[in-house]
Amino acid sequence: MSTRNSEEFLSGNQSRRITWEGCSVLLDINDGDRVLFARLSSGAKIKIGNKNCSLQPLIGCPFGSSFQVEVGEDVPFLSRVVPTTEGNNLEEKMDHKIMDEHRDNRALVDNNTAQSLTGEDIDDMRRKGATGNEIVEALIANSTTFENKTAFSQEKYRIKKQKKYAPRVLLRRPFARSICDAYFKKHADKIGFLRVDTLSLLLSLANVTAHSDVLVLDMLDGLVTGAVAERLGGTGYVCNTYCGINPYPINIVRMFNFSDETCKRTVHASLTELQPSSNATSTSVDQLEDVCSIRNQQNEKTLSPSSAIDLVHVEERSSDDMEIVNNIVASPKTIRSVKIGEKAPPEVIKFWKENGFSSLIIAAPDLDPWGIVKELLPLLSYSAPFVIYHQYLQPLASCMHNLQIEKMGISLQISEPWLREYQVLPSRSHPHMQMSSSGGYLLSGTRTTPT
Description:
Elements: H1 3-16, E1 24-29, E2 34-39, E3 45-48, E4 51-54, E5 66-71, E6 76-81, H2 85-99, H3 119-127, H4 132-141, H5 151-165, E7 168-172, H6 176-186, H7 196-205, E8 213-218, H8 223-232, E9 237-242, H9 260-264, E10 266-270, H10 271-274, H11 283-302, H12 310-318, E11 322-325, E12 342-343, H13 346-355, E13 359-363, H14 369-376, E14 385-390, H15 394-406, E15 409-415, E16 422-423, E17 430-431, E18 441-447
Parallel strand pairs: 2-11, 8-9, 8-13, 9-10, 10-12, 13-14
Antiparallel strand pairs: 1-2, 1-7, 3-4, 5-6, 5-7, 14-18, 15-18, 16-17
């Protein structure tokens, strides 16, 4: 296949929302029990339980497809599960059965004698080629207490055995919401405890729309930068600024499957380059660069900004519930000609110096908000919105007080988003038992000319 045909194939797959070789995907195993970020290739594998499964069957399937682990003659493999009308009718019958339930579990005694099917019997069924669903049905048929349980308990029992003997994998598209949710549930510290509702409010308060030039200071591994680039959709520019010598890592941005046009419009430039040439670098900027240099040295020990593969080792050290699967050998079809996060062109930087940015977003929990906003705010055009995210309230309150004293902004307000998740099921809808207490705070306002 020629290079031109390969590019047409990639763009066609992206428009049809079908996976292709080399794309990034989010794999949801057993309804959120385990989450993986993977890059699809014929040689990539994931480990589910004690089985290593190839990701080859996932290539060419639409996002949202469901797969189930099956045991073949030689190795286990992922088999696509196609929803049927019978399954939907069965769920409706279960719902009505639960609503008309009059039984209870008071007479049941958990003494490990209710199941007559032994482990040797299950292994024998596997050797004979029995599928995971057949093993689950056999376990239900050989349980002496299953029929006496309530319909709700029967459903829980079936789901428990399904996860063990026939685990399922949901193929999800990695976009801002799914990535933020996955990181917040497993490794919230990596994204500064930024919750998805806080991220959506941040983008709205910053007025991130098409053809905007957004200045971003992102120290959350690129989550905010990726969310802004996704909303712009290949129009305007996202300028990821930084203090010091090296840009901040944006490993998460590489999971979004951005087009070449979006990659070209996601650039970086240092704070010194963006400042007007007539103004010399102030002492406060030097101090900020010193602080950021120390922060960059700490990041280099954990994450390398030049490679997303280093994330694998970090994820494995922190938890087995969330990890990243990468290709060992890249296919020539998957190599992009445009690398995301390149240096901003000089003519574009000159335009920003003359006209200013249309929005400013700061997500740097490790820096003092006032120390950085007083240097970045003059880079905005007048009447442009700005938003600052922080995990804690007090730094934003101090920053808001200083902005009022210096008269650098109007319509200043601190917002605390509030989110409650509900379980919606027949006869048992209620708020989730475990929820996050806070998703962070936002300080927003509009830049004005100092008097």
